[in-house]
TrEMBL record:
Record carries keyword Transport: no
Keywords of the record: Nucleus
Zn(2)-C6 fungal-type domain sequence ranges: 9-37
Highest taxon, organism lineage: Eukaryota
A GO MF term: DNA-binding transcription factor activity, RNA polymerase II-specific
InterPro entries, per the entry: Osmoadaptation_assoc (IPR053178), Zn2-C6_fun-type_DNA-bd_sf (IPR036864), Zn2Cys6_DnaBD (IPR001138)
PANTHER family named in the record: TRANSCRIPTION FACTOR DOMAIN-CONTAINING PROTEIN-RELATED (PTHR38111:SF11), ZN(2)-C6 FUNGAL-TYPE DOMAIN-CONTAINING PROTEIN-RELATED (PTHR38111)
Xref: SUPFAM superfamilies: Zn2/Cys6 DNA-binding domain
Organism per entry: Clonostachys solani
Gene3D superfamilies: Zn(2)-C6 fungal-type DNA-binding domain
PROSITE patterns: ZN2_CY6_FUNGAL_1, ZN2_CY6_FUNGAL_2
Name this protein carries in UniProt: Zn(2)-C6 fungal-type domain-containing protein
Amino acid sequence: MPGVPRSRGCQTCKDRKVKCDETWPTCTRCAVINSPCPGPTSLVKFVAKNPHGAKTNTGGQPLTREPRQITFRNSHLPIRFHSINQSDYQKPRPNPTTRYDHIALRLISSLERGPEGITTLRMSYLPELPVRLSESKCLRDSVDLFCAALIDFRSHKPEGELHVMTQYGKALRSLRMALLGNEALKPETMAAMALIERMEGLFKRGSPSNVHTKGILQVLKMKGPPKLKDHLDVAVANELYGVLLNDWTLRESCSFFKAPGWQEALDRGVEQFTSEVDMGPFSKHDTVEFVEYSRQLHAFILEFQQISSQSPTIETKPAIESLCRRVSEAEVEVARIATASKDSALKQGAMVEKPDPKSPVGRKYEFRSPFFAMVYLGAVSVQIVLLRILYESAAIVESSDAEDTGQRLREVCCESWKAVPYFRSLESIVAENLMAPIYVSYEAANELEEEYLLDAVEYIDRDLKRFPPERSQMRHMMVHIAKLMTGRASQSNLG
C-alpha cells in the first residue's frame, strides 16, 4: 500500500535517507548528529486530510534538534557532545554517509562502552571529537587509527598479525601534511598528535618511545596557551601537559608552562574535567588543590635532583632543610585531602574495603568510579613521592627524622597496595594509567610484598609487553622506575 512505512527505522534517518540501525532508545546516527531520536516508526499509518498540504511526522514525535547528552552504558556518567547548529544538518548534502560520519559512528560506539572499557582516564577530550572530524583530515585519520588500534588490541593478536599499521602510516602522513601547512597550530591537529602518541603503545609493544612526545613539546611551545572558549583546545592542552610532565626525560623542558596564559588555561581544564565527570567524594575544591600540589611535586623533584647531585656540605644543608620544610607542608595537605576523601567515600559506598587473604596486607579496595580511583590513588602516589624525598633528604643530612619518615612512608605504601586487586580487574590499557602507586611504593616492599606486586605488574602487562619476562630484569626495571619517579635516577641509566 503506497505511503505505509515498511521499516521501523526512526523518521530522522528516513528524512536523511540513511539506514537506521534501530538501536533504541537512540539510534547511532542520531547520536552522531547530536539529534534527539524520535524512536521507531509505527508500521500503521493514519492518514488525515490536510487542506494546507503540510507534512506530518509519522513517528508521532516532533523532530526537534535540541542539544542532548549521551550516557555511558552501565554508568551514570554523562558525556556531553557539543551541539551542531540546526542549520548545519538541515542543509541538503549530496552524500549524507561521508567518511567522517562512519568514523564518528565508530568513535561513539567505543565511547558508549563506558569509562571502564576505554582509555578515557587520560583522554577527556574524546567526546569533543565527533563534531570536529569534518574540520581536519589528520584528525579523521587519527580517530580512525584510535578505533582500529582498540579493536586490534582487544583481539589479543600477536604484534606481527595486527592490521592497524596501514591506518598508522596514513595518520602519520596526514599529520605531517597538517604540520607543514596552515593547520599546524589548530586544536584538531593537537588532538591528532595526542591520539597518535597514546595509540602507538597499543600496536608497537614493548618499551614506548617518546619521539611523538618530543614533537608535541615543540608544537606546544610554538602554539602557546589554548583559547579558553574552545573546550577541545583546553582539554587537549591539559592532556598533553600531563603527558609531558609524566615523561621523566622532558620535565626540565616544560618550564614554558609558567608563561602568561598557561596557568589560567590549565585551571580551566581542571574546571572542565571536574564538571563533566563523577569525582565521587572529591570536592571540586579538593581536586583543584590536589592538582596544584601535583604541579608543585615536579618542581620539588627537580630541586631535590639538583641538591642530591652535590656532595653534602655545610653550604648545602640550609637548602636541604628549606626543601624539607616545604615538602613536609605539602605532604600534610595531600594526606589531609586523601584521608578526608577516603573516609567520605567509605561512608557513601563509593569505595569499599574488604578482607583479602591473597594480599600481603590482608585488605583490598573496590571503587565505584574509575575517575575517583584515579584521583584518590594519584593523591596517594604524590604523598609517597613527597615522603620519599623527605626520607632521602633526612638520610643525606643524617637527620634523626629518617626513621619516623621511613615508617610513615611504609604505612602509605601499604595503603596503596590495597588497590592492587582493583587494578587487575580493569582492562590493561586503563589499569596502566593507575599503576603509579605500585611503581613508587615498590622499594618499600618486603620479599613477600615484592612478589605480590610483580605478579600484578606481570598480569596487567601481559598484552602491553612493557616489561621484560624475566623476574630479575623486571625487578631491576621496577626499582629504576621508582627512582626515576622520585628524582633519584636518570633515563639514560636504564639498562
